[in-house]
Every structure is written in structure tokens, then in C-alpha cells.
């Protein structure tokens, strides 16, 4: 026994010694086995002498052991040691390192290793070509023409994959073998002896730089290994199914087929067992694993919710362990809780798990074996429903298992399942978090872990590649879009082939049309771009800078910003082009008609309820891709429920804000009043437990009170409440479709309310409360104006970057200025006419020949576009616009728009921004209308395809607006929906007319006596207007609702065979069974009048409500509304009876006196000009100047027509004189003086005569005269507007205009 123990100890000692030798061997050693062993012996000789005796005993024992066991141990040690000989060779890559499980390198022979490496490279290259040979014909198609003309064999006749072996003729195989031989012999067989294995001088794969060559060959090795695995898999699948990605249904012999219909086999994977656990076909083992999977999934779902719930709802109140004084709030979330939960807590957890595990039999064949523990919320007595629920549970559990592993991983790295990765200081990703392309909100994103090795060189190479791909994608995306918008180039793409640009289709179909020479040019250009600059590490081109300074810059910060923007745009373009390819491949166009894609399972549901314009059937996530009708209906039912809850929740947010809260107590026992419960999320903590129990009980009642099984009315949301549904199937479907649309809107609304409530404390809260918001950094910047304030719904400024904000503001100014010019360019030629003469004398093109609007694009010659672009370039580059310069804020020194006074400049630029925003909206509308009708304000009669045309002759379509539907409610052309809305409009109008009269009549007459004798409420006690709501008793409101119900459902019922608002038993003025109007023109005229009056009444009653709410009366004394900033100007010049101070647009609500004075001065000037213009319309009818207006043009005053027609007759010099005179008056004679009243100029006498009689000494008389001037000017502005309008429409001037003579 002792000898045996000594032998074992000796063996252990030898193992320890040799193991130490193995691990202390230099990592850089590349010698053979002999060199490695010498190193080990040297290390042993240098061991301390203190262990000599022990070492001698150990060596003796080891010698005995090795002698006893032969060379087996020596071989094992030799193998273990020699692995270190090749650990730095080509192909040794993370994470596996040097991997030789079979022991091919155990002899340490370097030459043999290199030979094998050379063979591996060759096999990898062949495999890569073979893999591409499988894939390419499936994607691009096969080569045209014949593979063997003599045998009549076309390339198209050769099947893909293994089946091709029998089709290729002998001569083809001979060519393949000959090519192999050429490749094999031309490079010699000594490459692995004399040089690097695999280096045949082809420098795309290798390089003259040793380090670069090693990297490329290592990458090639890795790709080759992947290709060897891929081609083996393709051969295997091809052999089994007949295709490298064939239908496994063709492989009926697979034991995996035994479980393909089992629970949990779901699309898109189907039955998935990559490790082969079920390869033995053992059903019992399969079911045991399935049961285990369900349990793990359930635990994972609970664990995932356990991570998330405390973050959202907070933790339980009170103590987790009273004896230990441990509160729930003291237990951290996540992995850190493990050390906090006391032992008793873990015992309870384990005890609960044991109870769950043992309380129900789980033997094979029992319900518990498949996860059915009798809890019918997850399972069901119905086998089909139970299987669907358990399958859903399996899928959710699988997701939860992945989620909880990710949470554990992130928690372990950062300290939180949603933690900041910046905490993980050791992460290789942090090395690149400040690199180009790392942008908010994602930050540095590398889910595949490409940068896990921390290699800066690899990162930069990938970034360079990403830039190139992005640029190509941007060009490709524009290449899809541009031909659709601007059309194609004129002329020929290939004159020799007779191929016009117009003949080349857009998108993927172009691939087959472009001739070979075209592809050659494309490839040559790509090659030129690739090789024309040095892109090696450290050069500007390596970072995407090819010297094209529009995209880059000599300023490093500016260059980084532009390249970052380019990266972001390129990423978007890569996503866009992939989507375009996908849609083009399916439908034949990048934005093609999905109706062309008849194979789509989505088509199965395109006529289902809820598929509504403009989206139609919309399922971007592909939930319905399996075409399962039952699953679709279940999701639709769920959507209806969620929508109903969201609608109630949305109303629950809004109603208390408008109507106030219920009186009395929510919980008398707790002394909690309804008014004590805050609105929104804050209510969660106030509602008592009993309240939540009632809410949950009501939800459970709603859920279980009606059968919702497939095929029942409840399955489609019909619970018998006929206000939302109907006995009429068509009406019911329409109502449910409307409910679906409203529910979807409510789901979006309630999420927004939750978000805003969480940030600001109210669903309509003041964002100023959210002090941490980056938006607050810009709330005082230029362009932030009432009533919207700072508005950035897309979150462009969420990063708080002042530089980016200013750059965007500068861009906005430019776009606004261009839009203002473009808008004026649409309007001006229509009013003033076009320039005389030629736009292009050489082309014989007159200004008059260029149409207005979009049609001009095709008429302006190339030289004209060149001038436009040159002018734009001049404006862009003529001033320094870098950060901090005046031009960066839009100040180009043109002092009409800016000013040397900073406050004035800010005001003007703010006004310009507002005008520019309006112009951007206007020009988009003009483009849209021009494209549809041929003119920016064109005759809609030209747009015959408009569904709005279907209703242009219906009741209620009246001059001057005609048919008016700005929201497009009737664009579907649905006559039934139109009539329903018209009937609703009539009802609303009738109610509004009654309500308006109800406001007016009590001011002059009220009923005598009591409104409610029992309550002692007299009619005289009820105030007029909104204040009456709180005075009318509940019984009164009940009478109202009953009366409305009687009218709606009893007396006047809707009849689709009659006109909207025309009820069978309703007479004139709505008297039941009274006299009716005789059909005809008179009847239509009266109904149209009712509609118009009803519309007016709806506007009136809204105004009355508004004024009543502000002042306490529908025409209340504004003196009661003391908070109004309008009060600041009620004693100013121009405030006259009977209107008083009138500012319906609210221009003066900011209370800015300076702005008010400026507007008043402008009003005076406009009024004075309007008075002159009005007199100018009238006077020439009775008197004209004698003689010539322009002797040079021989134009007499009598030749100039009156009115608008004069514009075209006054010569250019006349207009110049008018403009000079206006400028002299405005900037010379009569300059504004802040110390004087608006319109009162120092050197202007009575009637504006320069330096005439001085100011009037009678103060009151002066004020009265100036007020008279303002009133006359206002009248003149209305008069001249009417004159211009009438003159423009009818051409009338003079007495005919104001009706004195025919």
C-alpha cells in the first residue's frame, strides 16, 4: 500500500513539474519539440536546491511509472508540450486559440504544420467558391447562352447543387480538372517551405506588408473555415432534401419529424433542435424536456417581471423581515438582492418551489406532465384553446429565458439590469465610445461584438467600410427615387445597342437591361474610387476623407461633424435600400402596389375589420405572416379591448380637468374625497386597496360575463350593447371599425399622456417642471415663439448640443427664405404679370412663355438653371457662416432683415423665422395642389380623379367656399358615411341654434314660477350660461337626457332612403307630424339656409362658451376679465365705440407696448394709403389729368384704365417714381419718433403737408381727428379690398362698381 501511495505521489509530482514546464514555456516559441523540451530541462536544472531530494525521489518514481506504463505517458506529455510550438502561427485566433483536438501537431514538425496550413487554405478557398456557387445562381440567375454548344447544353439547364454533377459533360469536368492542375502546379509545391502558406502573389488577398498580409490571410482562413462548414451543411441538406435550403418536408426519414407537430413547434423556426437532443426519437425523453422547458420558462417570466416591476411600480410597503428589521425597500433590485434576503426568506422560496413541484402528479400521461396544473387562466377545458395558450406560454417563456440571461449579464457587468454600461470600465467597447459614428440615442452599438477584441485598427477598417457602404447606399437610394420624380436622362444610354435611358426600368429590373459595357464602366469607376487614393491606416482616406470638402473640411471639428452626419445618413440609406430591394423583388417596384404580391399571407386579412385607409392592412412586425385566422381574430379582439380601456383612460385624464371631480367621498371609511385624488399617475398611490379590488373585479366581470369563444359575438367585441354595435351587420361593422380607429388613437394618446405625466407631473403639464430636459436649454433661443413655445416633437435637440441647434436654426432660416421667395414666385406673376422681353434670347424663349409653377421646370433652359445654382452658391459661400459669426445666425448685413440694435435684430429674425415657417407650409401646399390641378390655386375641376368631387352638388355645398373638407373625411367617396356626417352636422347645428337662442332669450324673458318646486329652485334663480350647469338639479338633467333619447330614437329616426335631416314625421320647424315642405328648389334653399345658420350657430355658441368662461357672461363686460393683457391698450388711440378695443387675432396679448405702437403706426400708414387708393379708384371716373403720363412712350393719362388694369399700362419708370416717392416719405420726410404718438411726425403738418401748420393745440380735438383718421382708414382698407376683389372678378370700375348705373 505504501509503495502504491509513493508511486501515486511521484506521478503527481511529475505531472506538476511537466505541467509547470508547459505553462512557463515562452509564448513566442516557434521551435520544434526538441527545443521545447530543452527549455523544460533547463528550467528543471535551475530549480532550487532545497527540493533536490524530493525531486530525486520524484524523478525515480516517475521513471518507474513510465517504465511500467511504456511510452503512453511520454506521448501524452509530448502532445501537451508541443501545442505551444504553434500558438502564434497563422490561423490561431480568438476565442478558441490554437485548436488541435486530434493531435496532428503532436510531433512538433513545423514543415508538416505549414503543409497542412497550406492545404487548409486551399480547401477553404475551394469551399468559399463552392458556397458562392450555391448561392449566386439563386440570387442573380444563371449565365446566358450555352455551357456546351456541341451538346446543346445551356447554363440554364444545369440544376443548382449536387444534381449538377450528372449534368456537366465530361469535357466540362476535364476543364475543371485542368484548371485545378494549372493552379496547383503553377504556384509550385514549396510555398509552405519557402514562404507563407497560401501566398501566390495575388496581392488583393495578401500584401507586401507582412503585418497586413498576416491579417488578410488570417481573415481568409477564418472565412474558409466557415465556408467549409457551410458547404458541408449545404451538401448534407442538398442530399437530404434536393436543395441546399430545401424543404425539410422532403426528408421524411428524419427522426426530428416525429416531433414536428408537437406543442412548441412554431413558425418561423418550426421544430428546432440544433444539438440533436431528439435524434433518438424517444417520446418520453422529449416530453420530459418539454415539461422542464415550461417550468424554466415560467420561472424566467416571473424573474423577468421581478426585475421590471419594482422599477415601475415601486416596492411593497412595510417589512420583508420584521424580526431582522429588513424593509422591502431595503432590498436592491437584481442580483444584489441575493445577499440581502435572509435565510428564512430563501427557505420560504425553496419551500414554495417544492410545493409547486410535488403538489400535482407530473407522471407521464397526466395533465401536470404537459404543464396543466388546473389553473384555467393559462390552460382551458377546451383542448384547442389549452394548446394555443400553452404554446403562447412556451414562446413567452423562451423569450423570458433569453431576457433574464441578458438581465443577469448586464446586471453583473453594470450593477443593474438596465444599467449604464459606462460603469463597466473593463469593457473593450468603451475604447470606441468617443469614435466617429457614435451618436445619440443609441451610443456605441455593437451587438455582434465585432469590437470585443479592442483592436483600434480593426475598428477603423470597419468604420471605413461602413462609410463606403453608406455612400453607395445613398447613391442607390437616390437612384431609385430620382427617376420617379425628375424623369430620366434624354437620349441614349448605349447608341450602339439602340438603348435609350427611357428604356431602362427603375430598380432591380434594370440589372438585365444595362449592357455589359455599362457594367464595365460601373466597375471601372468603382475601382478608380477604390484605388485612386491611399487608404492605408493613418491616411485621411482611411477615415473617409477623400479631399471632397463638401463632405469633409480642413477644420477637424467640422469634418467630424459632417462625417458623423454622413454615417447616420448612410446607415439610414442602407436600411432604406434593403427595404427597397425587398419590396421591389416582391412587387416589381420599390414602392410598388402590394396587390401585385398575391402570394403574401397578409392578403388573407386585407378585407377584415380594422383595415382602413390610408394604411390599409398594416402589420409591419408580421404577426399575421402565418395566415392563421384564429390567431388574427384573437389579436383583433385583444386590440378592441385595449382600445376601449385606452379610451376610458384617456377620458379619465381629461374629464376631471374639464368638469371637475365627483362631490363627496371616494372612501368614507378612509376619509378620502374624490377631490383629494390627483389626476393621472399620481392617483395610483392614493386609491385605497379596496378601490383597486373593485377595479379588478369589474374587469374580471367584463372579461367573464360573456362568452368570447371563436364564432361568438363577443369574439369580435359585440357584447350586446347596441350603442356601439347594432342588429344591422353593416352598421355594426362600421361602428366597430370606427371604434377600432378611435381605440388606436386612444392607445397612442394615453401613452403620450403617461410619458408627459411622468416627466412633468401632469398629462398636460408644463415642461418647465422637467428641469433635466435638454429642451430647456433652447427655450429662450431665437424662433421660440408663442403660442407653441419651443417645439421639437422629433427630439432633434434631445442631446442638448447648442452647436447642432444653431446649425439647424441657420438651416431653417435659409429654407424659410427660399420658401418665401418661392411662394412669392408663385403669386407675383399671377398678379403683376411677367417680365417683358426674353428670358433666353438665344433660345427665343420669352418670360411670357414660361408657365407658372412646377410646369416651369421643363421650360427653363440649362443656362438658366446654371445661373440659379451659381447664385445659390454665391449666397452660400460669400460670407463666413462658421459658428459664432453673424451669418451663422442669419445676419448677412442686409439691415432690412437685421439691425445694429440686438433687440430689434432678434425681433426681426424671429418674425422672419415665423414667416419662413409659414412659407414652407405654403409652398408645400402649392406644390401639392399644382401637381394635382396644374396650378397652385388651380381649378379643382381639373382634378377629376378626386373623390371629393362626388359630393360637390350635395346639400350644404354653398358659395363662396364650395365643397369644403380640409381634413379629407370624404376622400374615400363613401356616400353612406357622407350622409351620416351631414345628418350629424344638421343635428349639431340645430342644437347649436337652440343653445344660442337659449343664451339670448333669458336676457329679455324668463319663465315665471319654479324650475324645481321640490328643490325650491325658480327659473329666475338659474343664471344664464355656463353657470347654470351647477344650478339645474339632477332630475332636470335626467329629463334632458330622456328628451334627447326620445327625439333621437323615437320621434326622429334616421332613414337612409331620405335626405340627411329629413325625418318622416317631422314638419316645418321640426313640429312632429306638422306640415312638410314641398320638394323642389324652395325646399333645398331652406335646408341649405338651415345648414348655413347651424354652422354659424356652432361658431357662435363656441364663442359664447369661451367668452362666458372668461368673463362670466356670453357677452360679458370685459372689465371683469382683469387678467387680460388686452386691457393694457383699451385707452389707446383708435379704441372707439361700439366695438371698443378689438383684437380677435390676439396680436397684442403679450402686452408689448412697443409692438403695439409699431402696429398702430403701420395701421395708420396702411389706412392713409388705402384712403388715397380708394379716392384713386373714384376720382378718375370724373376727372383725369390732361396731357401725357409718359411723353417718351406717348402715353396719355386718359389712356391709363382705372383699377387693376392700370398695372400693365404704367411704364417701368412710373413704377420707379412711385417706389422712390414711397421710400422718400417713409425714410426721409416722415420718420417714426418713439417720443411722439404713432403717425405723428415732427415735420408733418395737417393733412401731411411737410412743414405746414404745426400741431393742433386743442388736445381733445386733436385726438378726435386722429381717431377719425383711423376709423376712415379702416373703412378705406375694407373698401379698397372690396374694390380690388370686385374689379379682379368682374372687371367693373367706377359707378358700375358701386351700383349707381348698370
Automatic annotation (TrEMBL):
Keywords: Chloroplast, Photosynthesis, Plastid. InterPro entries: Chloro_AB-bd_pln (IPR001344), Chloroa_b-bind (IPR022796). It is found in: Plastid, Chloroplast. One of its GO terms (biological process) is photosynthesis, light harvesting. GO terms for cellular component: chloroplast; membrane. The keyword Transcription does not apply. Its main location: plastid. This is Ankyrin repeat domain-containing protein 50. The lineage of its organism: Eukaryota, Sar, Alveolata, Dinophyceae, Suessiales.
Amino acid at each position: 500500500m505504501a509503495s502504491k501511495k509513493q508511486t501515486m505521489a511521484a506521478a503527481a509530482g511529475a505531472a506538476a513539474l511537466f505541467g509547470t514546464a508547459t505553462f512557463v514555456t515562452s509564448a513566442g516559441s516557434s521551435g520544434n519539440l526538441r527545443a521545447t523540451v530543452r527549455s523544460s530541462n533547463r528550467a528543471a536544472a535551475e530549480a532550487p536546491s532545497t527540493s533536490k531530494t524530493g525531486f530525486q525521489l520524484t524523478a525515480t518514481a516517475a521513471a518507474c511509472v513510465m517504465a511500467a506504463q511504456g511510452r503512453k505517458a511520454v506521448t501524452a506529455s509530448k502532445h501537451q508540450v508541443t501545442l505551444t510550438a504553434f500558438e502564434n502561427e497563422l490561423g490561431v485566433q480568438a476565442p478558441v486559440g490554437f485548436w488541435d483536438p486530434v493531435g496532428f501537431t503532436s510531433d512538433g514538425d513545423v514543415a508538416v504544420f505549414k503543409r497542412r496550413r497550406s492545404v487548409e487554405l486551399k480547401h477553404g478557398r475551394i469551399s468559399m467558391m463552392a458556397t458562392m456557387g450555391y448561392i449566386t445562381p439563386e440570387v442573380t440567375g444563371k449565365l446566358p447562352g450555352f455551357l456546351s454548344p456541341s451538346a446543346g447544353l445551356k447554363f440554364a439547364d444545369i440544376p443548382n447543387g449536387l444534381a449538377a454533377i450528372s449534368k456537366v459533360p465530361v469535357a466540362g469536368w476535364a476543364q475543371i480538372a485542368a484548371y485545378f492542375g494549372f493552379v496547383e502546379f503553377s504556384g509550385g509545391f514549396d510555398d509552405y517551405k519557402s514562404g507563407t502558406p497560401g501566398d501566390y502573389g495575388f496581392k488583393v488577398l495578401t500584401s507586401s506588408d507582412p503585418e497586413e498580409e498576416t491579417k488578410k490571410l488570417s481573415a481568409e482562413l477564418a472565412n474558409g473555415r466557415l465556408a467549409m462548414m457551410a458547404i458541408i451543411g449545404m451538401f448534407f441538406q442538398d442530399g437530404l432534401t434536393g436543395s441546399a435550403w430545401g424543404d425539410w418536408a422532403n426528408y421524411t426519414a428524419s427522426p426530428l419529424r416525429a416531433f414536428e407537430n408537437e406543442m412548441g413547434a412554431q413558425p418561423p423556426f418550426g421544430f428546432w433542435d440544433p444539438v440533436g437532443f431528439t435524434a433518438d426519437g424517444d417520446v418520453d425523453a422529449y416530453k420530459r424536456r418539454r415539461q422542464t422547458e415550461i417550468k424554466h420558462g415560467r420561472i424566467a417570466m416571473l424573474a423577468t417581471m421581478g426585475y421590471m416591476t419594482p422599477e415601475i411600480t415601486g416596492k411593497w410597503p412595510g417589512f420583508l423581515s420584521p424580526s431582522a428589521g429588513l424593509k422591502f425597500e431595503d432590498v436592491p433590485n437584481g442580483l444584489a438582492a441575493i445577499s440581502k434576503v435572509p435565510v428564512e426568506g430563501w427557505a420560504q422560496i425553496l419551500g414554495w418551489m417544492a410545493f409547486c413541484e410535488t403538489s400535482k402528479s407530473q407522471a407521464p400521461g397526466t395533465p401536470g406532465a404537459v404543464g396543466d396544473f388546473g389553473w384555467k387562466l393559462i390552460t382551458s377545458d377546451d383542448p384547442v384553446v389549452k394548446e394555443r395558450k400553452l404554446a403562447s406560454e412556451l414562446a413567452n417563456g423562451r423569450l423570458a429565458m433569453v431576457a433574464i440571461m441578458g438581465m443577469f449579464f448586464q446586471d453583473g457587468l453594470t450593477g443593474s439590469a438596465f444599467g449604464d454600461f459606462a460603469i463597466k470600465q473593463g469593457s473593450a467597447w468603451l475604447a470606441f465610445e468617443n469614435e466617429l459614428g457614435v451618436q445619440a440615442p443609441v451610443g456605441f452599438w455593437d451587438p455582434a461584438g465585432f469590437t470585443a477584441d479592442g483592436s483600434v485598427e480593426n475598428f477603423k477598417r470597419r468604420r471605413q467600410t461602413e462609410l463606403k457602404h453608406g455612400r453607395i447606399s445613398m447613391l442607390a437610394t437616390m437612384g431609385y427615387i430620382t427617376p420617379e420624380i425628375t424623369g430620366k436622362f434624354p437620349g441614349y444610354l448605349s447608341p450602339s445597342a439602340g438603348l435609350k435611358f427611357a428604356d431602362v426600368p427603375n430598380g432591380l429590373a434594370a440589372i438585365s437591361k444595362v449592357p455589359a459595357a455599362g457594367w464595365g464602366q460601373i466597375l471601372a469607376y468603382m475601382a478608380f474610387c477604390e484605388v485612386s487614393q491611399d487608404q492605408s491606416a493613418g491616411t485621411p482616406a482611411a477615415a473617409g476623407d477623400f479631399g471632397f470638402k463638401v463632405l469633409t473640411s480642413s477644420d477637424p471639428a467640422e469634418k467630424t461633424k459632417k462625417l458623423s452626419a454622413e454615417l447616420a445618413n448612410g446607415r439610414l440609406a442602407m436600411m432604406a435600400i434593403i427595404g427597397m430591394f425587398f419590396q421591389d423583388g416582391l412587387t416589381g417596384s420599390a414602392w410598388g402596389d402590394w396587390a401585385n404580391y398575391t402570394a403574401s399571407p397578409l392578403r388573407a386579412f386585407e378585407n377584415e375589420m380594422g383595415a382602413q385607409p390610408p394604411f390599409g392592412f398594416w402589420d409591419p412586425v408580421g404577426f399575421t405572416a402565418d395566415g392563421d385566422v384564429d390567431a388574427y381574430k384573437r389579436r383583433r379582439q385583444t386590440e378592441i379591448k385595449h382600445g376601449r380601456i385606452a379610451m376610458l383612460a384617456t377620458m379619465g385624464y381629461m374629464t376631471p380637468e374639464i368638469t371637475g371631480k365627483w362631490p363627496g367621498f371616494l372612501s368614507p371609511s378612509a376619509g378620502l374625497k374624490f377631490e383629494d385624488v390627483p389626476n393621472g399617475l399620481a392617483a395610483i398611490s392614493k386609491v385605497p386597496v379596496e378601490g383597486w379590488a373593485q377595479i379588478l373585479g369589474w374587469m374580471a366581470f367584463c372579461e367573464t360575463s360573456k362568452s368570447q369563444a371563436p364564432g361568438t359575438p363577443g369574439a369580435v367585441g359585440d357584447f350586446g350593447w347596441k350603442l356601439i354595435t347594432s342588429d344591422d351587420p353593416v352598421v355594426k361593422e362600421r361602428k366597430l371599425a370606427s371604434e377600432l380607429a378611435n381605440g388606436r388613437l386612444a392607445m397612442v394618446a394615453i401613452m403620450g399622456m403617461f410619458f408627459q405625466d411622468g416627466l412633468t407631473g401632469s398629462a398636460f403639464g408644463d415642461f418647465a417642471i422637467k428641469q433635466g430636459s435638454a429642451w430647456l436649454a433652447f427655450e429662450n433661443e431665437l424662433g421660440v415663439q408663442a403660442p407653441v413655445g419651443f417645439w421639437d416633437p422629433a427630439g432633434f435637440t434631445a442631446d442638448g448640443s447648442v452647436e447642432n441647434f444653431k446649425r439647424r436654426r441657420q438651416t431653417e432660416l435659409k429654407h424659410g427664405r427660399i420658401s418665401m421667395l418661392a411662394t412669392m414666385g408663385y403669386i407675383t406673376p399671377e398678379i403683376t404679370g411677367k417680365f417683358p422681353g426674353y428670358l433666353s434670347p438665344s433660345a427665343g424663349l420669352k418670360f411670357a412663355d414660361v408657365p407658372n409653377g412646377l410646369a416651369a421646370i421643363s421650360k427653363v433652359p440649362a443656362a438658366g438653371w446654371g445661373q440659379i445654382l451659381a447664385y445659390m452658391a454665391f449666397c452660400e459661400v460669400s460670407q463666413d457662416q462658421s459658428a459664432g459669426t453673424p451669418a451663422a445666425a442669419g445676419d448677412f448685413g442686409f439691415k432690412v432683415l437685421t439691425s445694429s440694435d440686438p433687440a430689434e435684430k432678434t425681433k426681426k429674425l424671429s418674425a422672419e423665422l415665423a414667416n419662413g415657417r409659414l412659407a414652407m407650409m405654403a409652398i408645400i401646399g402649392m406644390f401639392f395642389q399644382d401637381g394635382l390641378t396644374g396650378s397652385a390655386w388651380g381649378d379643382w375641376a381639373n382634378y377629376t380623379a378626386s373623390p371629393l368631387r362626388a359630393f360637390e352638388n350635395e346639400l350644404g355645398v354653398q358659395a363662396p367656399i364650395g365643397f369644403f373638407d380640409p381634413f379629407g373625411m370624404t376622400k374615400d367617396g363613401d356616400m353612406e358615411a357622407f350622409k351620416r356626417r351631414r345628418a350629424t352636422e344638421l343635428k349639431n347645428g340645430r342644437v347649436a341654434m337652440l343653445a344660442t337662442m337659449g343664451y339670448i332669450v333669458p336676457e329679455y324673458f324668463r319663465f315665471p314660477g319654479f324650475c324645481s318646486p321640490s328643490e325650491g329652485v325658480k327659473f329666475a334663480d338659474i343664471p344664464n350660461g355656463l353657470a347654470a350647469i351647477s344650478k339645474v338639479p339632477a332630475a332636470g338633467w335626467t329629463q334632458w337626457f330622456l328628451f334627447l333619447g326620445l327625439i333621437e330614437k323615437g320621434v326622429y329616426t334616421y332613414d337612409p332612403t331620405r335626405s340627411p335631416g329629413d325625418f318622416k314625421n317631422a314638419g316645418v320647424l321640426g313640429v312632429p307630424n306638422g306640415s312638410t315642405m314641398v320638394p323642389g328648389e324652395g325646399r333645398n334653399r331652406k335646408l341649405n339656409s338651415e345648414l348655413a345658420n347651424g354652422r354659424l350657430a356652432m361658431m357662435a355658441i363656441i364663442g359664447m362658451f369661451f367668452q362666458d368662461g372668461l368673463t362670466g357672461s356670453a357677452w360679458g363686460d370685459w372689465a371683469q376679465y382683469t387678467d387680460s393683457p388686452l386691457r393694457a391698450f383699451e385707452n389707446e388711440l383708435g379704441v372707439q365705440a361700439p366695438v371698443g378695443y378689438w383684437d380677435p387675432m390676439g396680436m397684442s396679448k403679450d402686452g408689448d407696448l412697443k409692438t403695439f405702437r409699431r402696429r398702430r403706426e403701420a395701421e395708420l400708414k396702411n389706412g392713409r394709403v388705402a384712403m388715397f387708393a380708394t379716392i384713386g379708384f373714384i376720382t378718375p371716373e370724373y376727372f383725369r389729368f390732361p396731357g401725357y403720363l409718359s411723353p417718351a412712350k406717348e402715353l396719355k393719362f386718359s389712356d391709363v384704365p382705372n383699377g387693376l388694369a392700370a398695372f400693365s399700362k404704367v411704364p417701368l419708370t412710373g413704377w420707379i417714381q412711385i417706389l422712390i416717392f414711397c421710400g422718400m416719405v417713409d425714410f426721409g420726410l416722415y420718420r417714426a419718433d418713439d417720443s411722439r404718438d404713432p403717425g405723428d411726425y415732427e415735420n408733418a403738418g395737417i393733412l401731411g403737408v411737410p412743414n405746414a401748420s404745426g400741431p393742433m393745440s386743442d388736445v381733445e380735438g386733436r385726438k378726435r381727428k386722429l381717431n377719425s383718421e383711423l376709423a376712415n382708414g379702416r373703412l378705406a382698407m375694407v373698401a379698397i379690398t372690396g374694390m380690388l376683389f370686385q374689379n379682379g372678378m368682374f372687371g367693373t370700375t367706377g359707378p358700375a362698381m358701386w351700383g349707381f348705373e348698370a
